[in-house]
Design a protein that fits this description.
InterPro entries: Glyco_hydro_71 (IPR005197)
Structural class: alpha+beta
Pfam families: Glyco_hydro_71
Keywords: Signal
Largest sheet: 4 strands, antiparallel
Number of strands: 13
GO molecular function: glucan endo-1,3-alpha-glucosidase activity
Number of domains: 1
Strand order of the largest sheet: 10-7-6-13
Mean pLDDT: 89
Length: 253
């Protein structure tokens, strides 16, 4: 079985190389901080868990930059079956399990549009989200949401489900101010936010049953310059035995 565990972002310290170069008296304690989007797994036998997602990922970006730990660890798949993966999905990881029931088809690589600029900002010594900039002059970011409402009859089977919110979530990196971020659910606008340079994010209440979950980034001239549209509709009740609280994640294009 292939084990995809985590990606470690190294700042000022690089433990193996530095340890070899320094004497024991020169070594010091290393502080690390984890970065995770959320946790969800639905494995039965007391292993059905949700740990808050919504805007946890961009909030952690800001916390890491403010605290400036020596190491920042991006939790991409701490244990096979937990929902915080941001990389490729390997079928051999989940062979013989029911993990695929809630993970197959739920691609989270859209979060990489946020992670890559965060890594660059962290390594360069940035101290705030306003310093996490897109790689060019075009906005980047992602949209994410659950495809099942919190009120679904199966939701109480998930430990900690009470933390969940029926929101459309987004994080967008802007090259400058002057943009507006518009958020939609079921093809109805549920939020509009003035953007500023760097990291912009929000958990917008109003996720509703149906299709048409999307965000638009609009420039000062009123033109849509980037958007992300969910491929999965939202349901009030589960259509099968899986109470799926995994996220649909879509990057801007």
């Amino acid at each position: 079985m292939r084990a995809l565990t985590s990606v470690v972002v190294v700042g000022a310290l690089s433990s193996p190389a530095l340890s070899a170069a320094l004497s024991p008296l020169q070594l010091r304690a290393v502080a690390g901080q984890a970065v995770s989007s959320f946790q969800f797994k639905y494995l039965g036998s007391g292993q059905d868990w949700y740990r808050i997602g919504e805007v946890n990922l961009p909030q952690r970006f800001e916390q890491v930059l403010a605290l400036k730990p020596d190491l920042a660890e991006l939790i991409t798949w701490n244990d096979a079956g937990e929902g915080h993966y941001i990389g490729n999905f390997f079928q051999e990881q989940i062979a013989g399990s029911t993990i695929g029931d809630y993970a197959n088809g739920f691609d989270h690589t859209g979060w990489q549009q946020l992670v890559t600029p965060f890594i660059k900002a962290y390594k360069s010594g940035a101290t705030s989200g306003s310093q996490i900039l897109p790689p060019g002059s075009t906005p980047v970011g992602s949209l994410w949401y659950r495809t099942l409402l919190k009120s679904a009859s199966c939701s109480p089977s998930i430990q900690n489900y009470q933390q969940g919110q029926d929101t459309v979530n987004y994080a967008v990196l802007l090259p400058s101010s002057g943009y507006t971020i518009k958020v939609f659910s079921n093809n109805k606008q549920i939020g509009s936010f003035a953007g500023s340079a760097g990291l912009n994010y929000g958990a917008v209440p109003g996720l509703s049953v149906g299709s048409g979950q999307f965000i638009q980034v609009v420039n000062s001239a009123g033109s849509v310059v980037a958007s992300a549209t969910g491929t999965k509709q939202v349901s009030a009740q589960s259509s099968n035995a899986t109470c799926n609280w995994n996220y649909e994640v879509v990057g801007l294009s």
